[in-house]
Amino acid sequence: MHITLVSDPAVPGADEDAAGVLGEVAVLLDGAGVPQRFRAGCHHSVAWFSHTLAAHLLGRAQDRAVPLSAALAAAITAVRALHEDDCDLASGSPSATVVAVRRQAEHLEHLVLCDSSLLLGGTDGQVLRVSDARLDEVVRAEPGAASIEARRNAPGGFWVARHEPEAADRALVGRTPIAALESVHLVSDGVTRAVDMLGLHDDAGLARALRTDPTALLRDLRRAEAALPPARRPRKPHDDATALTLHL
Known about the structure:
The protein is α+β, with helices and mostly antiparallel strands and about 250 residues long. The protein is about 30% helix and about 25% strand. It has one domain: PPM-type phosphatase domain (Phosphatase 2c, domain 1). It is built from seven helices and ten strands. Strands 1-10-9-6-7 form a five-stranded antiparallel beta sheet. A five-stranded antiparallel beta sheet has the order 2-3-4-5-8, with helices on one face. A hairpin with a 2-residue loop joins strand 2 and strand 3 (about 25-30). The protein is globular, with a radius of gyration of 17 Å.
């Protein structure tokens, strides 16, 4: 297996994405950059949270007898213990999306929570995108930061890794035969902008670009973001863009 990792922060030196590989486990987390007033109870940065949680999840997922969702719940609990005595987590704390994969015998297990994505590139040339659409559904139904925040980690809303371990049970999980896969891509939503917002690729084209020249993909992504007319520019003109590819 060959691994490539590319990451381009929206603000140099302030990358809130975290990704890594340990043994047969790979993870990617995208720190949720919500307004400070919604995480005012915690003095830790979003980057601290995403990187710390990624490290704990990589460690706990090494035990193959533990489901990925249980490993994530344990990691959330461990990170919560690091700062719950110093921070008022009931008043808000940082959060992160999660994508994780793990080889288990002849299968690849996966877990996806919130709006980062997993692209499964098959040996038949097909690409399956695994995405958690619940945040998008909330945004469409109730635009506005306060309305969206009220439905974070709430029944009928959307779920993200924060300080509630039960969020792990709401993740999308599955498994795919290793023999059916050519490549696997863990990507933050800063990368899937190339499909969803900019129209540079479809899912298959995005997977192909990540497999062949991921650096060129990020360069084209930034150029396309900068070229958007003012009326089409999102609240965040640029977003942290990270892709971790496993070439099988």
